């Protein structure tokens, strides 16, 4: 079953679903690109692993120590403890984050020609994950390696660019190593199809067209996301008012509300 939205389905952005969407989309892009690039290039799935500081947002509006158990009755305490209580509480615990991305490598030399990233929420909110990704991004931008950066999540701050396009809901940035600082930015919203783009290679190569929208819609169908999404509620994060009204009408027309 295809998704009800013409492009990016905002319900796929839910934090509980996005890691699976992200990894599924990375794998689908590899399977789509690899046959088109062989034998000169191969497409590798790479992974980075890091430990992030706890997400402070979980403590917003809560006391410094959250009580999750019952106090021990005073009768169970020693006389010297009768003025205090014993609780089970929570402390912030760092998270282990794994992120996958693609590298197009030259078969003969293993030279990295193009890096393809799909942003995660960790990349777009302040913290260690954002700092590490921005450092990696700057390393690529300072080299001759091409960068394709796909942002299909509305939460968090967009990656730094100069010029128009930051205010759009979603973005695909294609930065060619021989054209910087000029890059091509595809900006689109929830009402528009996801625009295809050409995967940058060497100037003499025939560049394949990446139909990201079709790849995402095929993933939605094969992974049966229609069985997991509740279109009767609002997406997370919620849409702006105008887009929410449009989405409500669209979902009603398709019998999902």
- How helix-rich are the residues, as a percent range? 10-25%
* Helix-strand makeup class: alpha+beta
Averaged pLDDT:
88
Reported CATH architecture = Alpha-Beta Complex
Describe the structure.
The protein is 24% helix and 20% strand. It is α+β, with helices and mostly antiparallel strands and 257 residues long. It has a single domain (10-53, 94-229), classed as tt1808, chain A (Alpha-Beta Complex), CATH 3.90.1570. The strands form two sheets. Strands 1-2-3-4-5-6 form a six-stranded mixed β-sheet, sandwiched between helices. The chain has a two-stranded antiparallel sheet with strand order 7-8. A hairpin with an 8-residue loop joins strand 5 (170-175) and strand 6. The longest helix is centred in the first third of the chain and has 20 residues, at 18-37. The chain starts with 17 loop residues before the first helix and ends with a helix. 24% of the residues are buried. Residues 56-72 have low confidence and may be disordered.
SSE topology sketch:
Layout: H1 18-37, E1 41-52, E2 95-106, E3 112-118, H2 121-124, H3 128-141, E4 146-151, E5 170-175, E6 184-188, E7 197-198, E8 209-210, H4 212-222, H5 241-253
Parallel strand pairs: 3-4
Antiparallel strand pairs: 1-2, 2-3, 4-5, 5-6, 7-8
Helix pairs in contact: 1-4
What is the structure about, briefly put?
The chain has 257 residues and is of the alpha+beta class.
């Amino acid at each position: 079953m295809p998704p009800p939205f013409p492009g990016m389905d905002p319900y796929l952005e839910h934090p509980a679903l996005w890691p699976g969407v992200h990894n599924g989309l990375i794998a689908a892009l590899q399977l789509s690109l690899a046959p088109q690039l062989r034998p000169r290039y191969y497409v590798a799935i790479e992974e980075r692993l890091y430990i992030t500081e706890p997400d402070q947002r979980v403590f917003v509006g809560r006391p410094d120590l959250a009580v999750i158990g019952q106090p021990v009755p005073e009768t169970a305490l020693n006389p010297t403890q009768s003025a205090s209580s014993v609780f089970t509480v929570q402390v912030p615990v760092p998270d282990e984050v794994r992120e996958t991305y693609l590298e197009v490598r030259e078969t003969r030399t293993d030279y990295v020609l193009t890096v393809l990233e799909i942003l995660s929420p960790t990349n777009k909110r302040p913290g260690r994950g954002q700092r590490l990704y921005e450092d990696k991004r700057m390393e690529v931008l300072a080299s001759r390696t091409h960068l394709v950066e796909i942002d299909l999540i509305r939460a968090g701050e967009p990656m730094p660019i100069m010029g128009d396009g930051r205010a759009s809901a979603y973005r695909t940035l294609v930065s060619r190593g021989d054209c910087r600082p000029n890059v091509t930015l595809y900006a689109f919203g929830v009402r528009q199809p996801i625009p295809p783009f050409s995967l940058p290679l060497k100037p003499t190569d025939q560049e394949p067209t990446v139909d990201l929208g079709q790849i995402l819609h095929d993933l939605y169908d094969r992974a049966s996301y229609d069985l997991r999404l509740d279109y009767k509620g609002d997406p997370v994060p919620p849409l702006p008012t105008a887009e929410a009204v449009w989405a409500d009408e669209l979902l009603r027309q398709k019998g999902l509300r």
